[in-house]
Every structure is written in structure tokens, then in C-alpha cells.
Specification:
SH3 type barrels, 5-stranded antiparallel β-sheet
Length: about 70
């Protein structure tokens, strides 16, 4: 089973994005997503942004993960 985590894009540079995932910042690959900009939300798996999501999606995913933990 694969688990993707929601994150907000903080900065973009050369196909890489710095994202904030519940306070943890990390650099990921953004090569799969076109027109990604700071402030956008993405689903991250294995250090790669795999889908652009909405802030509502991010909040719902965070709530579900909290319930599981």
C-alpha cells in the first residue's frame, strides 16, 4: 500500500519544490506537475509531488491521518 502526504509548496526552483507538510519542510521533485507555484497544495509520495490538490483536500487528509494515529 502506498501513502501520500499532503503538503503546501513554499518555494520552487529548477524542478524542485520546498514543501511544508504539517510543519516539516523538505525538498521534493516537482517534475511531474506542470505550473506548480508557491501556495499550491500537492500530494507527495516517495519525495515526488504526484498530484496537485486543493486546500480542502489537504485539510480532509490531515484529519483522516490524525484519526488513524
Amino acid at each position: 500500500m502506498c501513502v501520500g502526504l499532503p503538503a503546501r509548496v513554499v518555494n520552487m526552483k529548477d524542478g524542485k519544490a520546498v514543501v511544508d507538510a504539517s510543519g516539516a519542510k523538505r525538498e521534493i521533485s516537482a517534475d511531474l506537475i506542470e505550473n506548480l507555484e508557491p501556495g499550491d497544495y500537492v500530494m507527495v509520495h516517495a519525495g515526488i509531488a504526484i498530484a496537485k490538490i486543493t486546500s480542502d483536500d489537504e485539510e480532509e487528509t490531515d484529519e483522516l491521518l490524525e484519526d488513524l494515529l
